[in-house]
Structures
1.
Amino acid sequence: MSTIRFTHYCWDEVLFWLVVALKNRGKHTLDCLSGIISLLVVLELEFVMIYALVNLLHSCQGLLLSSIFDLPNLSVLYLDNNQLVGPLPNPVSGLNLLIDLSLRSNFLNGTLPSWLFSLTSLVTLDLDHNQFIGEIGEFKYNNSLDYLDLSYNMLQGSIPSSISGLVSLTYLSLSSNNLQGSVPSSISRLVNLTTLYLSSNNLSIMLDLEFLSNLNNLNALNFAYNNLLVSINNNLTFTLPNLKELNLSSCNIIEFPIFLKVATNLRYLDLSNNKIHGQTPEWLGAVGRNSLTFLDLSHNFLTSIDMVPWTNLVFIDLRNNMLQGPFPTLNALNLSYLFASNNNLFGGIPSLICNAKKDLELSCGSVGEVTEVRIMKGKDSGENKGFAFVTFRSAELASQAIEELNNTEFKLR
């Protein structure tokens, strides 16, 4: 098998190889590339700034892609993280055997060509972080596609129903586009799906999460920042036992999804900017007890959270709720970010901040006699390089606090 792999570590080698090839062919453009490496099966050119080759050799923009796309035996093509610009060319005879196509993190634009959705042997299609516009085409019959990432483009229109026919799909990301309409319930047929990212679009209409009940392999789900009205029927008993990441921020939900109850390995939970009322359910503390590192419940209407039992928590945001009573008990020694301002908490700041192993950013608003606390605390070989801003109700309290803080591992400045 013919294979060429170049990375940013061997830029000179890429340049030398191509220039020599061009001189030997007696041409000054890259259209001879297909004749030189017509037997090429794998081509990886990542971080090599291909656009510079085009400029250096005075070639027409896009000619390199046209040449590569006509390689008849090519099965793997990686051109990630270059500065390729322009639309995708239409191959004359190449790419019929293509299995993996990755053009992520370039400046490619225009609409997605129809031939892209007709590659029946394709396993990986990654075009994220480009500037593609227009609609996503209808996928032809494909039993092979495993990985589909079209995120961070400017795609419009609806999610095509033909996606539900990609029965081998495990990874689907359409986030950060301008997609409209509803989320097709037929996605529930993708029983092998492990990752589903649809965040930051203009998707609307009511979405009943019951359609997820068949996706037992799902470990990452993100519907955040759409115009969705997500309906959660907690009378249903379906579960997502393998879930590790859930982001339903800004989804208009009114209660904690009960399918989280068995998500014992959850690592990331964002339910911020919703309409969840009342106290947190008792079972929430068992969700990801030893695995959860990120928790965002801010901008809801929560009234009570007695304790924060997650031992590996790094980030917690409880801001802009209606929390009352003493500050929740914390057990996370790895905590780096704690936000709880704009609540009605009282009592002392958790002593945990004096024992934190890493830098800690704390914003707690009004807590007891302290009206505002913002602390950055760091440890570096025993030397404190942190700082703190604290506002007290009286000078006497401030003096007492300074004395206490000077006896800890950080000082007021």
Note: The radius of gyration is 27 Å.
2.
Amino acid sequence: MVDKRKKTKEKFSLIQRVTEKATTEEAHGVYTFTLSGLANKKEIAARVRQDFKVTPIKIHIVNLPKKSVTIMGRRGTRGGAVKALVYLKQGDKITHSVPIKK
């Protein structure tokens, strides 16, 4: 039996969220990313270590639900995302929203 997780292992990306709340949390060592694709906490931690050269202490994953909307008499949905909160130890920083390539 083929493990489906191994096929989709590298099919996610971390996109840094730039909001007022996320910016204020960066001062406390908490960085907020939007996930595109499926990933678990271990895969996110490995990607942060690889791309930004820092080690996260803990990671929280938050599912943002889709919202129902009605546009021109038709029902639909908008939004919906997965957000990852990455906690770093005191003194570590992520200074680039784009991963460092060496």
Note: The CA atoms of residues 66 and 94 lie 29 Å apart.
3.
Amino acid sequence: MSPATSESQRKLMCLALSIKQGLTPKSRSPEAARIAAQMSEEQLKDFCKSED
């Protein structure tokens, strides 16, 4: 896996990570909730990294 390719993708992956960790309700973003269910926490962390 590599970091997200766009800022909007990174934000979506970070939101999915937050949902997976139980910090954000699934109702906030059904798309992010679906991603959270399909990807591991490690994968989401990798995508959530910014390319500094």
Note: The chain has a mean pLDDT of 91.
4.
Amino acid sequence: MDEQEKKLEEQAPDTEQQPESQDDQTETLKETTEKIWGSTKHAWSTATFKANQYKKLVQKKIDLSAIHKKINAAHGDLGKIIDDLRESGQKNIMNQAAVKEILERIDELKAEAASLEEEVEKIRTEEAPQEELNPEEKTE
């Protein structure tokens, strides 16, 4: 029995060391879990930000494309009116009300397109918001 008792004592860890070891393991596990969770949250927020940014960019580009189509249509209208006026023998074609109206519309559309292009560039240069560090992370 003496040998069996010795073997059991050797196999059983010290009860005094075990709680400390478990506390260390628990703390290490907790820190690792917090780091993984922090990384996961950061990755998720970055992915969400990028997806929203892409959505905004696509919508602005669709709007910009529609404006460019309107500009092209206005150019076509302008050319047709100028040709019709020329064929009818009109003088001072550029001073005609219809021509001035289309030119003003083209200028407005170009200004709107420039504004949208600025917004697109602004969205492209936006950076993901940085999350505040936890108090524990600030001290490290």
Note: Residues 14 and 75 are 90 Å apart (CA to CA).
